[in-house]
């Protein structure tokens, strides 16, 4: 899946679209995607000057965006302006190595389970053979304008 197909599936846009390409997609099971990390990313100006490092929360967001692509494919749906896919939880997030300009971040997501409209995924972000981040992610789809139940 190239960037043209990705922007039809995700509502995110620059500077918050964090998936550049899907290289593997196995329906109802797993996805592998790429985020090419460049020195032009706006967050590098302040994180950290002289030693730029991709913020961990953005690595988690990249994993969540890849999970959204997998979920919409599994549901056989195309998102529209009436529905959004929300990240609702993160468990066990661990950061193992910094992600720097020039790195190619590989985003590997597998579906763990779907229960009561909540999707649970296992996510692994790596650079080459090194794990950069691992986490369990939970997401759900909501209609825009649906009342908040919290």
Main sheet record: 6 strands, antiparallel
- Please report the distance between the alpha carbons of the first and last residues: 36 Å
* CATH class wording: Alpha Beta
Structural class computed from helices and strand pairing = alpha+beta
- Domain count: the total is 1
Mean pLDDT: 93
Q: How many helices in DSSP terms? A: 2
Q: How many strand units?
A: 6
Structural shape:
globular
Portion of residues in helices? 10-25%
CATH superfamily: Hotdog Thioesterase
Look up the CATH topology: Thiol Ester Dehydrase, Chain A
CATH architecture: Roll
Strand/helix succession: HEEHEEEE
Side-by-side strand order of the widest sheet: 1-2-4-5-6-3
**C-alpha Rg (nearest Å):** 15 Å
In terms of DSSP E residues, the strand content is: 35-45%
Low-pLDDT runs of 5+ residues are: none
- For this structure, the quaternary state is single chain
Please explain how this structure is put together.
The chain has helices at 3-9, 56-75; strands spanning 21-26, 30-36, 83-95, 104-115, 118-127, 130-143. It is an alpha+beta fold. It has one domain: Thiol Ester Dehydrase, Chain A. A 6-stranded antiparallel sheet has the order 1-2-4-5-6-3, with helices on one face. The N and C termini lie far apart (36 Å).
Topology record:
Layout: H1 3-9, E1 21-26, E2 30-36, H2 56-75, E3 83-95, E4 104-115, E5 118-127, E6 130-143
Antiparallel strand pairs: 1-2, 2-4, 3-6, 4-5, 5-6
Keywords:
150 residues, alpha+beta, Thiol Ester Dehydrase, Chain A, six-stranded antiparallel beta sheet, 2 helices, 6 strands, 18% helix, 41% strand, globular, (3R)-hydroxyacyl-[acyl-carrier-protein] dehydratase activity, lipid biosynthesis, cytoplasm, FabA_FabZ
């Amino acid at each position: 899946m190239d960037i043209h197909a990705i922007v039809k599936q995700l509502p995110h846009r620059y500077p918050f679209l964090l998936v550049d390409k899907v290289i593997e997609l196995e329906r109802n099971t797993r996805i592998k995607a790429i985020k090419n990390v460049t020195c032009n990313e706006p967050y590098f100006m302040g994180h950290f000057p002289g030693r730029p490092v991709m913020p961990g929360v953005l690595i988690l967001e990249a994993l969540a965006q890849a999970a959204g692509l997998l979920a919409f494919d599994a549901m056989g749906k195309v998102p529209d302006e009436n529905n959004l896919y929300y990240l609702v939880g993160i468990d066990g997030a661990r950061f193992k190595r910094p992600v720097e300009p020039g790195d190619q971040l590989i985003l590997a997501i597998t579906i763990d389970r779907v229960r009561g409209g909540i999707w649970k995924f296992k996510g692994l972000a790596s650079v080459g053979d090194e794990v950069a981040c691992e986490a369990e992610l939970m997401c759900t789809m909501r209609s825009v304008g649906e009342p908040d139940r919290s």
